[in-house]
Amino acid sequence: MTTPVRLLIHGASGRMGQALLRLATERPGLQVVAAVQRKVDQRVLDGVPHFASSELAAAPAFDVAIDFSLPEAFDPVLALCAERGSAFVSGTTGLSGAQREALETASARIPLLWASNFSLGVAILDELVERAAAALPGWDCDIVESHHTRKKDAPSGTALSLGAAAERNGATPRYASIRAGDIVGEHLVQFSGAGERIELVHRATNRDIFARGALHAAARLAGRPPGAYRLRDVL
Ligand code: NAD
User: Fold this and answer.
1) Where is the active site (predicted)?
2) Which of the following is catalytic: 10, 39, 50, 147?
3) What is the complex's ipTM, to 2 decimals?
4) 13 CA to centre of ligand 1 in angstroms
5) How far is the CA of 106 from the centre of ligand 1 (A)?
């Protein structure tokens, strides 16, 4: 039997953290050794050691940290991974320019993967947007994203990544955000020309897709050489 990949889940009590803990136990080859959240006021999963963020340094040895938290919680967990030589997978959105630079710096020491969206569908949508933007010079490009009312950042990290893909291929995207109900995540990328329009849409109906993608990335990243990996590198 091969040794399991030891995981630290950061942001464990959140919507994504809870999905990650539940699904990690179903996936062979992964073992959660630490669940970290702001305060240990609720234990998410029995049998998993829980830590408050103030106790992060006391976490046991781990191979990969998976972080789905908030920008204000991000720096210490990245620093811990760099210090210990552990891999880092993060889906936290709304990061500052300095935090993006910290990722770049850390990638010289550890393997890491940050993605605004861990679903397979959005990875494909990204490719479709690149193709459409390159093939439709001069068309208007509009990105409309919809999420639940408790989402803090806008436009979403995914909308900005899709916009960057369009921009790299000559389009000038505009953004609109909708915050309503319990929408898990929807992204519409619309290309409009004279007398015609293309609409590319992705709808997430369950956040397990993001958690599964992040667990898959963690399993694939453990033991790789240092570097900044993209989701398509580990699919
Ligand atoms: P949430 O608010 O439900 O959970 C946030 C978690 O962060 C909680 O466990 C909380 O305890 C922890 N936290 C907050 N402040 C902290 C601090 N100062 N120190 C330590 N921990 C702290 O949020 P969520 O819906 O689970 O989303 C988390 C992040 O993941 C958001 O940035 C969201 O945009 C992003 N997200 C990304 C993807 C993707 O595929 N990349 C998918 C869904 C959500």
Assistant:
1) 147, 151
2) 147
3) 0.97
4) 9
5) 21
High-pLDDT (> 90) share of the chain, %: 92
In total, the chain counts a number of residues equal to: 235
Domains of the chain: 5-114+208-234 (3.40.50.720), 120-204 (3.30.360.10)
Condensed to tens digits (0 to 9), the pLDDT of residues 130-175 reads 999 999 999 999 999 999 999 999 999 999 999 999 999 999 999 9
pLDDT-based confidence at residue 1 (cuts at 50, 70, 90): low
- pTM for the full model? 0.91
Residues near ligand 1 with C-beta < 6 Å? 11-17, 37-38, 53, 68-70, 72-73, 91-94, 115-118, 207, 210
